[in-house]
Each structure stands twice: as structure tokens, then as C-alpha cells.
Design brief:
By secondary structure, this protein is an alpha/beta fold. The protein has one domain: 3-Layer(aba) Sandwich (Rossmann fold). About 50% of the residues lie in helices and about 15% in strands. Helix 2 packs across helix 5. The longest helix is centred in the C-terminal third of the chain and has 17 residues. The protein binds cytidine-5'-monophosphate.
Length: about 220
């Protein structure tokens, strides 16, 4: 059976990552979290006190940036490494969420990370989620999904996720962060978040997790 590329794009906090991960598992595909790469790059800027708005500092950051993924042998979960250090939890913290869209709007950073994403997906059999996967990273993807959900639902889900990690964050703060990221991601000059004409839109507001996974797996089986 041939393998395809599944591109899942959409607004912040729609459950793209957990859905994409489950779809990949159901199909025996590799899951690639492109957002984790932008988050790791942001952490690199923060750790080294570099500014994404100063070209020399962007240059410096890119020269010293190494992002990779490894499967944890105990949990079998894919984890993100920044310059050899495990940063999976750190990149999900609010201090990174608050700065990531600013870093992700920089052309040179996108160029470097898109090249790495294309390399990771070149043999197909991948599910990749992000903002520009169906438009820029894999415009020829055999299946493109655009996920949405209303802001209140997204914020409540994100708050629950953070709580499960022991991180108590105010709902209003999460809502503000999600809508601010949506605004920056959709209006930036470089690869803005857009719904492609050939993408299937799935509104997950009233869907259970199992339902949204099943819908995408079904679409994938038709596309393979
Ligand atoms: O997917 P996640 O919410 O972890 O992504 C974090 C941020 O990374 C997004 O708000 C966006 O600014 C950026 N991003 C991007 N392009 C992608 C994936 C993520 O610009 N393909």
C-alpha cells in the first residue's frame, strides 16, 4: 500500500497535535510536530537572550540551533531535543507560548525549519501538524485537513492539558494567548495560516477526540 503525506493545519489549541499523533498511530505513520520546532527555536532565543527582531541575533541563533526528535523507549512518545537536551515540557510553558509567534514570523527561521520538515517527510508516511504544512511545507500533500474549534472550547482544553502537567494557568490568560497567536499567525507576511481550497475543514467544537481521529483516518484511507 502506498504511503501519503497528511497535513493538519489550523488555529492554536484545536487539538491538532494530539489528533495528528493518534492518526499517525492508527495508520502506522510517523508524527511530526512542527510547532514543537518553532517552540524549541523560541526557547533557544530566550535561553541566549537573543532578539528575533535583530537580524544579527537571528543569524547567531540559527548557527547554534539544533532541533531533533527522539522516541522515549519507555513511553514510546516522541520528544523534542534542543542542542541535545530534552526540552519537551519546557517548550509547552507559557513563557514560550507568549513569544513563539514572534519568532515564527521571521523569514530566515521559517526557511531553516521548513527545510528540516521537508527532509523529515520526504519518504511520506507522515502526519505533520502546524500552520503552513498544506500551503508551504507539503503543498502536494495527498490529504490536507484544516482544524477549527471555538475559542472558549480551545482555551478550556488547553487549561486542562496544562493542569495535568501541574501548571495552573488562568483561563483568560490562555484565551488571550490563543487569540493573540492566531492573530499574528494569520496576519504575518511569511507563510500565514490560511485554509487551502483543497483542505477538508473539521470543526472539533462538538466532536469527541475519538470522533475527530476517526474522521481523519477515514479520509486518509480514502486517499491512500
Ligand atoms: O502548534 P503549536 O501551537 O505548538 O505552535 C506554536 C506556534 O508555532 C504557533 O502559534 C505558530 O506561531 C508557530 N508555528 C508556525 N508554523 C508551524 C507550526 C507552528 O508558525 N508550521
Amino acid at each position: 500500500m502506498g504511503k501519503i503525506v497528511i497535513a493538519i493545519d489550523g488555529y492554536s489549541g484545536c487539538g491538532k497535535s494530539s489528533t495528528a499523533k493518534a492518526v499517525a498511530k492508527a495508520l502506522g505513520y510517523t508524527y511530526i510536530d512542527s510547532g514543537a520546532m518553532y517552540r524549541a527555536a523560541t526557547l533557544h532565543f530566550l535561553n541566549h537572550y537573543l532578539s528575533p527582531s535583530v537580524p544579527q541575533e537571528v543569524d547567531k541563533a540559527l548557527k547554534t540551533l539544533d532541533i531533533s526528535f527522539q522516541i522515549n523507549p519507555d513511553t514510546l512518545r516522541q520528544e523534542t531535543y534542543l542542542n541535545g537536551l530534552l526540552v519537551e515540557d519546557e517548550i509547552r510553558a507559557m513563557r514560550v507560548s507568549e513569544r513563539v509567534s514572534e519568532v515564527a514570523a521571521v523569514k530566515e527561521i521559517r526557511k531553516a525549519l521548513v527545510a528540516q520538515q521537508q527532509k523529515l517527510g520526504k519518504h511520506k508516511g507522515v502526519v505533520m501538524d502546524g500552520r503552513d504544512i498544506g500551503s508551504v511545507v507539503f503543498p502536494e500533500a495527498e490529504l490536507k485537513v484544516f482544524m477549527t474549534a471555538d475559542l472558549e472550547t480551545r482555551a478550556a482544553r488547553r487549561q486542562q492539558e496544562l493542569l495535568e502537567k501541574g501548571d495552573m494557568v488562568d483561563l483568560k490568560e490562555i484565551q488571550t494567548n490563543l487569540s493573540e497567536r492566531d492573530r499574528i499567525d494569520s496576519s504575518r507576511a511569511e507563510s500565514p495560516l490560511i485554509k487551502m481550497n483543497d483542505a477538508v475543514e473539521i470543526d472539533t467544537t462538538n466532536l469527541t477526540f475519538e470522533e475527530q481521529v476517526a474522521q481523519i483516518v477515514h479520509l486518509a484511507q480514502k486517499a491512500i
